[in-house]
Every structure is written in structure tokens, then in C-alpha cells.
């Protein structure tokens, strides 16, 4: 359902069976948040008299959320880990056009042509005298004008439209590689144990580690008790729980731990290798 412009803070959300699920706390373009539950707009059926009604499948968003946060029959708390995925599709859109414009141009052309015409040549020819024959002298002394047609040719101009070529506009589909960037969210379940809860595990690790060194012998073995090693486990444990180190690895934090270790008067060289191992163990067990 398109909820654009219809959602308001505090709207009452009602299920298809009349169940009241609470009010809209906040919303964005695609999701309404009801009592902390993210409900997609597709789960809603209609808006009526200031109330937002869920469709038949809408109730599952509340039941799933409640079930995920209730204790199981074994007594374990189930916390869902949610993340968003990016799905990239395509759709046809008009990205532009090609304009083919036709205009009419005029130009003056000259075409040579040969025209014929009569040329009149009037000459008087002397002949031998002879008597006027019968019929020739009837109107011999009457004045009149004799018209002799003079013929010629004139140019007739006609125009004919002919096709001398064509413009072909073709269209082909080409592909291009693009990288679509989007921000996705995910939930991170981060359980921080207290040092007192982790201490027995550190003691066990210390005993095993000392036993291995004792068996191996050599310069790395030092007769120590847990009271000397415990500050190292604690230093690694507390460094891992420091918010400033949330996105850092032990190798990135190690130089700072070593500097603090030396400043506290602890040894260097071979002694650091053992102390470093204990700090790393504290780091790794801080958040499990």
C-alpha cells in the first residue's frame, strides 16, 4: 500500500482481527515502526478514520518479533541478527533523443540550352524581264502587307523532384558497466562479559601455558604464578572492551599495549612474548 502522505506519528495500528498493536512511533518512505517493530508498507491494507489497518499477513511481523525475543524451552534468549541486502535491477527509461530535422534550401542554377529560330533574309533579285502572266497582275498595283511568319524556339523550364540519397537513423542497444553504491544496515549482537566471569578461563589458560613452557624449557620459561600474569589478561580484556577499539584488531592495538606495559615497569624482550600472549588471550575472550 502506498502510504505517502498518509502516515502520521501516533496513528493507531489495528490488525485484521481487531487486535490493537499500538501506535506509529516513526516512519520513513517504506517502513513504519510500531512499538519498535519495523513493518513494511506492503503489510498495511488501508487507512480509515485515523487508524492504520494491517492486512491478514501483517500480524506475523509482531508475532515473529515477540517470538524472537522470548525465552525458548531451553531457557536461551534468542536475539535475531538482521542485515539488509542490496538488490539491483533495471528498468527501461528514456535517456534522451536524436532529433533529425529536415529543411528546404534554395539555390540558383544555370543550365545551358541551344534554341533555334528563323532568320529572315530579304533580298531583291533581278531577273530577265517578261510580260505579266494572266492572274499575276490582277492586284499588282494594290497596296497590302504581306506577313511572313518567323519561327523560333523558346526555353521551357520544368522541375522534377528526384531522390538523390537518404539519411538512415539506426538504433542499437549497447551496455555499460556501472557501480551502484547503497548503504545497508545490519544488527550486531555484542555481548560483553564481565572480567570476573572470564577470570576462571584466564586462570585455566595460564596453567596450560605455563605447563607447555615448563615442558619445552629454554629461555622463554619463567616460574610465575597467576598473580603476576593476571594484569596482562586484564589489560587485553579491558582494551578489547574500550569503545575506541571497537573496529580495531589486536595487532593494531598491540603497540599501545606494549608502550603501556613498559611504562608500568614491566620487562621487554623475551618477557614481552609471554606477556603479549596473555594479553591476546584476554583480548580474544573479552567479547564472545
Write a structural description.
There is one protein chain. Residues 67-73 have low confidence and may be disordered. The chain contains five helices and six strands; from the N terminus they run ββββββααααα. The protein has 288 residues and is α+β, with helices and mostly antiparallel strands. Among the domains are: 1-87 and 184-189, Roll (SH3 type barrels); 195-286. It has helices at 60-68, 195-216, 226-240, 250-263, 270-286, and strands at 12-14, 20-27, 31-34, 37-40, 44-48, 51-54.
Instruction: Name the strands of the widest sheet in spatial order.
Output: 4-3-2-1-6-5
CATH topology of the domain at 1-87 and 184-189: SH3 type barrels
Q: What low-confidence regions span 5 or more consecutive residues with pLDDT below 50?
A: 67-73
CATH top-level class of the domain at 1-87 and 184-189? Mainly Beta
Determine the mean pLDDT: 81
Task: Describe the secondary-structure layout.
Blueprint: E1 12-14, E2 20-27, E3 31-34, E4 37-40, E5 44-48, E6 51-54, H1 60-68, H2 195-216, H3 226-240, H4 250-263, H5 270-286
Parallel strand pairs: 1-6
Antiparallel strand pairs: 1-2, 2-3, 3-4, 5-6
Keywords:
6 strands, 288 residues, alpha+beta, SH3 type barrels, 6-stranded mixed sheet
In short:
The chain contains five helices and six strands, in the order ββββββααααα. The chain is an alpha+beta fold and 288 residues long.
Amino acid at each position: 500500500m502506498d502510504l505517502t502522505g498518509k502516515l502520521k506519528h501516533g496513528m493507531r495500528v489495528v490488525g485484521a482481527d481487531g487486535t490493537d498493536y499500538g501506535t506509529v512511533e516513526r516512519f520513513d518512505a517504506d517502513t513504519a515502526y510500531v512499538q519498535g517493530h519495523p513493518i513494511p508498507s506492503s503489510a498495511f491494507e488501508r487507512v480509515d478514520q485515523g487508524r492504520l489497518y494491517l492486512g491478514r499477513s501483517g500480524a506475523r511481523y509482531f508475532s515473529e518479533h515477540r517470538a524472537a525475543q522470548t525465552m525458548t524451552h531451553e531457557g536461551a534468549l534468542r536475539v535475531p541478527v538482521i542485515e539488509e541486502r542490496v538488490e539491483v535491477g533495471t528498468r527501461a527509461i528514456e535517456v534522451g533523443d536524436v532529433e533529425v530535422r529536415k529543411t528546404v534550401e534554395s539555390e540558383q542554377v544555370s543550365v545551358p540550352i541551344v534554341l533555334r529560330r528563323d532568320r529572315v533574309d530579304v533580298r531583291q533579285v533581278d531577273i530577265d524581264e517578261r510580260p505579266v502572266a494572266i492572274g499575276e497582275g490582277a492586284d499588282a498595283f494594290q497596296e497590302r502587307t504581306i506577313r511572313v511568319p518567323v519561327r523560333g524556339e523558346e526555353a521551357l523550364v520544368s522541375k522534377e523532384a528526384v531522390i538523390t540519397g537518404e539519411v538512415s537513423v539506426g538504433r542499437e542497444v549497447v551496455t555499460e558497466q556501472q557501480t551502484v553504491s547503497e548503504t545497508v544496515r545490519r544488527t550486531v549482537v555484542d555481548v560483553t562479559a564481565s572480567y570476573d566471569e572470564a577470570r576462571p578461563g584466564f586462570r585455566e589458560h595460564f596453567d596450560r601455558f605455563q605447563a607447555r613452557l615448563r615442558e619445552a624449557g629454554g629461555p622463554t620459561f619463567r616460574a610465575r604464578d597467576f598473580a603476576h600474569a593476571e594484569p596482562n589478561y586484564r589489560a587485553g580484556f579491558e582494551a578489547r572492551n574500550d569503545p575506541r577499539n571497537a573496529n580495531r584488531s589486536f595487532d593494531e592495538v598491540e603497540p599501545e599495549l606494549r608502550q603501556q606495559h613498559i611504562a608500568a615497569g614491566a620487562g621487554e624482550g623475551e618477557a614481552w612474548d609471554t606477556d603479549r600472549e596473555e594479553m591476546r588471550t584476554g583480548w580474544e575472550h573479552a567479547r564472545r
